[in-house]
Amino acid sequence: xxxxLPSLLGDSAQRFADKPAFxxxxxxxxxxxxxxRSNQLAYGLRTDGIQTGDLVGVLMGKSVDNAVAVFGIMAAxxxxxxLDPSAPVARLEQIAESCNLSHFVVDxxxxxxxxxxxxxxxxxxxxxxxxxxxxxxxxTAGWEQVATNPTxxxxxxxxQDDLAYIIFTSGSTGTPKGIMHTHGSAVAYADMAAKLYDVxxxxxxxxxxxxxxDQSTFDFFSSTLAGATTVMIGKEHQLVPASLSxxxxxxxxxxxxxxxxxxxxxxxxxxxxxxxxxxLRWVVYGGEPFxxxxxxxxxxxxxxxxxxxxxxxxxxxxxxxxxxxxxxxxAATDTETGMPIGVACPGMETLVLDRDDNPVTDGExxxxxxxxxxxxxxxxxREDLQDKIFHQRPADDGLRRYYRTGDLARxxxxxxxxxxxxxxxxxxIRGFRVELDxxxxxxxxxxxxxxxxxxxxxxxxxxxxxxxxxxTAYVATGPEVTIDPAKLQRHxxxxxxxxxxxGRVHFVDDFPRTTSGKIDYLxxxxxxEPA
Length: 531
What we know:
Elements: H1 5-15, E1 20-24, E2 27-30, H2 31-47, E3 55-59, H3 65-75, E4 79-82, H4 89-99, E5 103-106, H5 111-120, E6 125-128, E7 138-141, H6 143-146, E8 163-169, E9 177-182, H7 183-196, E10 204-207, H8 216-226, E11 229-232, H9 235-238, H10 241-251, E12 255-258, H11 260-269, E13 282-285, H12 292-301, E14 306-311, E15 320-324, H13 326-332, E16 339-344, E17 349-353, E18 366-371, E19 378-379, H14 386-389, E20 390-395, E21 398-411, E22 417-422, E23 426-429, E24 432-435, H15 436-443, E25 449-457, E26 470-477, H16 485-493, E27 504-507, H17 521-528
Parallel strand pairs: 1-11, 3-4, 3-5, 5-6, 6-7, 10-11, 12-13, 13-14, 26-27
Antiparallel strand pairs: 1-2, 8-9, 9-19, 14-15, 15-16, 16-22, 17-18, 18-21, 20-21, 21-22, 23-24, 25-26
Helix pairs in contact: 1-2, 1-8, 2-3, 4-5, 7-8, 10-11
């Protein structure tokens, strides 16, 4: 029988029953205990009406109970829906109504928010993991009560085509969009990534991203498949880079995976010269480009680690990789060269297509499409988008389905894919096409610029309507650094055509962030809107 995510856990528990599967704040949860507690939660969910294919919300901060929630929900045959603990109740309500959620796993700290959410839902809510809620339309079962349930494996069948989880993202419009992954796509990714990075039972992985961010699936599932230990990183370490580097040293982490921003913060403020991080053998990053000067400096600081740029929207999990060498950085400083995202992961296929869906020749720019067993089933409740987001092409084995990434790419002379920005980040000014991501990359080459975001904003007051949008750059500099905006514009003018030079430069102390640490372009754009 084809494996599903709970069977990966069961297999590792048979081999490593007493070994820590997850660890948080010096608390270990062994593989054997994780299976038992997951089965107890699954029994409670099934008793309270959950059936195979149903959805269960998870509203929790970091703890080893995260793993119990995830694997317990899947052991019940349901799919977990991670909810952003920092999101406003209105957004949580939108997702809960969309998924018809009536069962939730919640921790004590989020009990108040859960109570407000339950008040807005016109149904009885079953809440597990906390009893810190008032009565009314909420039925609670704390972990002590859950622990009285049987520890035997629930008697039902889950197949590879059944849903495992749904992750909601904002999309380009800000409307929550649910990415549906099956056990088949999740297991395919877990297996591919575990092999690509040679994850072993001796490894200790970081879990930096929150549960509602797709990067967490590597930490949860590839590690479980391999029998490794995942060390969960809480807010107290994430907010203090020097504390985070101490955690890496103390926990002897071997594999790191996060967005580049977390690594940049470690480099700049993590007191790395005082830490022994030699245990790290892989530093994997993705989700956004890594500023080359910071990547170069970090590679010099951690010479024993291998660095890997992984690319892939949440809809496909990871689909390409490029193991970086410092010679790649020298090549990528040429503004005509994009950021290498490498080659397709094993078992996957990538194509670069023109606007008529014809493959382009190497060196030409087009949209990247991906055929992969790790690809999502579709968007929750949006069957109308299937034809738009998927492209089918004839092949020897019949029609193949490709996911349209919306990203611009090309294949360079070395046969590597280069990421050239979002298709929807391409604008026209006076008839000329401008890639906003290229403008960002040029600004980041300035020594005093630490981070930047570039937007197309409404025309400046003295610009004619025919000029189109204005390019506005938001720039963060190093500590106690002051730059004349005109100097940055002159810097851009040496590498960009005149029409692509930012018309406005604003300096910021920090940027609005998504909960995964990425720059929140939607929030930044709203700051530009007139009051």
